[in-house]
User: What shape does this take?
Amino acid sequence: MLRLPDGMRDRIKAAAEKSGRSMNAEIIHRLEMTFGFLEIDHIRPISEGGTSDLSNLRFVTPSEHRLIHVLERLEKRLAEETGERVKEQAPLPKDAD
Assistant: This one.
């Protein structure tokens, strides 16, 4: 059980809704950011010709890192099944927090 100060649950719920996360995911995301648990991810994998210079690196939380790789696997599977590559999407806006 976690005890929160008055109003904190509502603030977490609002932040979670704004970011499209569950309350639990929002709390974990905030804790990861607070404690500096960041990982380095290659935007274009080395195996696909990417480099290790700063222009090809991004810093993400462990949960974001896992999600990136899950989405990449789903994209690859979809491309294999349909014969089409998923169209590039504009990046999501950064949190204003």
Strands lie at 39-42, 57-60. The longest helix spans residues 62-82.
